Amino acid sequence: MIEVESVDVSLGDTEILRDVSLRVPAGEFVGLVGPNGAGKTTLLRTVNGAIDPDAGRVLVDGDRMSDLSSRAGSRRVATVPQDTGTRFAFSVEDVVAMGRTPHRSRFGSDDGGDAVERALERTSTASFRDRRISTLSGGERQRVFVARAIAQEAPALVLDEPTASLDVNHATRTLSLVCELVADGRAVLGAIHDLEAAARFCDRLVMLADGEVVASGAPADVLTADALATSFDMESVVTRNPVTGAPTVTPLSDTGDERRSVHVLGGGRVGAAVVARLHAAGFGVTAGPVPEGDELLGVSERLDVPTETVPPMSALDGSTLAAAGERIDEADVTVLADLTLTPDGGLLDLAAEAGQTVVVEERPLDERDRAGTDQRRRYERLRERVTTSGLDDVAATVRSVGADAGRHVSRRGI
Ligand SMILES: Nc1ncnc2c1ncn2[C@@H]1O[C@H](COP(=O)(O)OP(=O)(O)OP(=O)(O)O)[C@@H](O)[C@H]1O
């Protein structure tokens, strides 16, 4: 168990960490996220005993790190550093064997058995065991340092950007391996820049900004658009990864000059993505009507996109339809974003009045179970009328919604 209690750290004249507290119980993987310069590396170096805090304390398995000798400290905490560059011409096997140093007696004996062998196997580095570490690629070298940390057999592990130089396959394998080490009962604290990977593999996240903990808890509670805006100074949309269920952060670029105006009819996941894309691309966006609680509303509130709402499950009344109709009239283009076919067809009537229209669908129409035959026919007729001329910029922007999510985007519509 790693316990960080009200730690302050200054380096030179600069205060780097302020009143930082966190706990990593055995069997838990806690991810440290935050912008460059937030103090993640400094915190990890305080946890592994390389830096003594000016105030507060770090305990590992109940003992204060600053009270332990460096040998005893290394038996408690193993580290995978951010910079794995080395000037020395050690072999891979030598580097992994260094993990055993804190376990060796004064006479050089080590009762760790085949710990080095097992670490080489687990990290798939055995095949280049005799190579000089300096001849490996950055990613291969990083795996060797993970192997060294495994060979160290310490109950706590700190990782500073363990996947920074790894390709997507090795990054996933390395983090899966870290999860196995956690399942074995280790306490792991890792700084991870890749927010999606952090959300997927970590049990909890701690967000650090400007030397302070600004959020901590389950990944979905920490990776909110608000917290990301405050800490990383960026607008983003947070959705769920359809495969892993973990939060996915999509940073939005600066909007620049406003382009043409677009009204988005529809909602849900596709509608939310369409609004975010169009807004990011600089279109003047309006949306609605959508039921309160719709996924689109979360995005439009975040981005200040004017959006009509109706109570959930209620029929669309005349004034709501009239207000939405006005928005459509004012817009240059209307996007039907996975339009739900409401029984009363109110949205279809609105869409039918729209001038230039782009259709984005999550599923082909014939898979829609909620649509009655009449609505389907009207929707099909609507699609027949969809214009494509002059829509290139809007269509290109929303087409990527379909491509990104691997979904169907109506060819006829765009
Ligand atoms: N020895 C030092 N003396 C003074 N300031 C330092 C020293 N080492 C680091 N800093 C500063 O402390 C701050 C935190 O650095 P740290 O490396 O801990 O951040 P980080 O969150 O790990 O950043 P990154 O994501 O870029 O790796 C930075 O502003 C850095 O410039």
From TrEMBL:
What are the alphabetically sorted keywords of the record? ATP-binding, Nucleotide-binding, Translocase, Transport
Q: Which Pfam families match?
A: ABC_tran
Residue ranges that the Swiss-Prot or TrEMBL entry lists as coiled coil: none
So where does this one cross the membrane?
none
Q: Does the keyword Translocase apply?
A: yes
**Enzyme Commission number, as recorded:** 7.6.2.8
Q: Where is the ABC transporter domain?
A: 2-235
Q: Which reaction does it catalyse?
A: an R-cob(III)alamin(out) + ATP + H2O = an R-cob(III)alamin(in) + ADP + phosphate + H(+)
Q: Name one GO molecular function term.
A: ABC-type vitamin B12 transporter activity
InterPro entries for the chain: AAA+_ATPase, ABC_transporter-like_ATP-bd, ABC_transporter-like_CS, P-loop_NTPase
Which PANTHER family does the protein's record reference?
Answer: HEMIN IMPORT ATP-BINDING PROTEIN HMUV (PTHR42794:SF1)
Under the subunit heading, UniProt states: The complex is composed of two ATP-binding proteins (BtuD), two transmembrane proteins (BtuC) and a solute-binding protein (BtuF).
Function field: Required for corrinoid utilization. Probably part of the ABC transporter complex BtuCDF involved in cobalamin (vitamin B12) import. Probably responsible for energy coupling to the transport system.
Protein name stated in the entry? Cobalamin import ATP-binding protein BtuD
**What lineage, starting at the top, does this entry show?**
Archaea, Methanobacteriati, Methanobacteriota, Stenosarchaea group, Halobacteria
